[in-house]
Design a protein that fits this description.
This protein has 283 residues and is of the alpha/beta class. Helix content is 39%, strand content 21%. The strands form three sheets. It has a seven-stranded parallel beta sheet with strand order 10-9-8-13-11-14-12, with helices on both faces. The chain has a five-stranded mixed beta sheet with strand order 1-6-5-7-2. A two-stranded antiparallel ribbon has the order 3-4. A hairpin with a 2-residue loop joins β3 (48-49) and β4. The longest helix is centred in the C-terminal third of the chain and has 17 residues, at 258-274. It is elongated.
């Protein structure tokens, strides 16, 4: 089956409607966002929520449609409307220096916090006060790689559907449940009520991650709170948690960036949970 339409004018209604999704206000109004590149589009095609396909539209340059024919056909099969479009239109939608020729329009896919808690999660990343979209997307990718059960973005954090965040997630946005716009107190109390130990990751923490591992305290259900890279977590937020934990610096580096610290913490929990006696250990 061929594409439903061929677009050559940046003023075409479909191109204009998709381009508006670069703005947060329109994303929220339409509950749609843009996913750029074959990896993100491939994951969007495979994702469904509440009985609906997540990918609703696909814009592809003729060259990209030929190079990634299997992605285009999968989009057709999933019921998405596919448009061949000029490179200029697709580049305008992708907003990257080197566009990959494919941009998908996707339905919002966040889930209610209550639904995530009802699934009894054992490893959760909570982004509290994270304002940089690249950091948010990279932490989500780290959480996915570490086998986390969910990611929660508080109401003080960046928009999950910011194009930079979507790109930085490298498709992981479509792999695990995500809740957005949750007040940090609600997130912490909800996780605690669900039997999850809540730890704040902070360079000034009074507990050392290595010591926590050695003491055998990391094998149970755990949520990590990650804050703003520049100024960390506010004291009011740290006070909500069970402990404030620092990643030890064995060399001369002043600090770790947010995504690196998140990867260390999440993988420490993942390994402890899979060790004998951990909450994910084989029975």
């Amino acid at each position: 089956m061929g594409p439903a339409a061929e677009l050559t004018s940046p003023r075409s209604p479909r191109a204009v409607a998709a381009r508006r999704l670069a703005r947060r206000s329109f994303r929220g109004k339409e509950r749609r966002f843009l996913a750029e590149g074959p990896q993100a589009v491939r994951e969007a095609v495979a994702h469904r929520a509440d009985g609906h396909a997540t990918l609703t539209e696909l814009f592809a340059t003729p060259e990209a449609a030929e190079r990634h024919a299997e992605v285009v056909e999968a989009a057709h099969a999933a019921g998405a409307r596919v448009h061949l479009a000029s490179p200029e239109i697709v580049a305008d939608l992708s907003q990257t220096v080197t566009p990959q020729g494919l941009v998908g329009v996707c339905r919002f896919l966040d889930r209610p916090l209550a639904e995530i808690l009802a699934a009894r999660p054992r490893l959760v990343a909570v982004l509290a006060h994270v304002r940089d979209p690249g950091n948010a997307g990279t932490v989500l990718r780290c959480a996915d790689a570490a086998g986390a059960d969910a990611v929660v973005l508080t109401d003080a954090s960046v928009d999950l559907y910011n194009p930079k965040a979507v790109r930085a997630s490298a498709g992981s946005l479509f792999h695990l449940p995500v809740a957005v716009g949750v007040p940090v107190e609600q997130a912490v109390h909800g996780l605690a009520d669900a039997g999850v130990r809540v730890l704040a990751a902070d360079g000034g923490g009074d507990r050392d991650l290595d010591d926590e591992l050695d003491a055998g305290r990391m094998g149970g259900p755990t949520a990590w709170l990650f804050g703003n890279e520049a100024w960390g977590l506010p004291e009011t937020t740290r006070a909500l948690t069970d402990a404030v934990v620092r990643v030890p610096l064995h060399g001369r580096a002043e600090s770790l960036n947010l995504a690196t610290a998140a990867a260390v913490c999440l993988y420490a929990s993942a390994r402890a949970q899979r060790a004998p006696g951990g909450c994910r250990a084989a029975r």
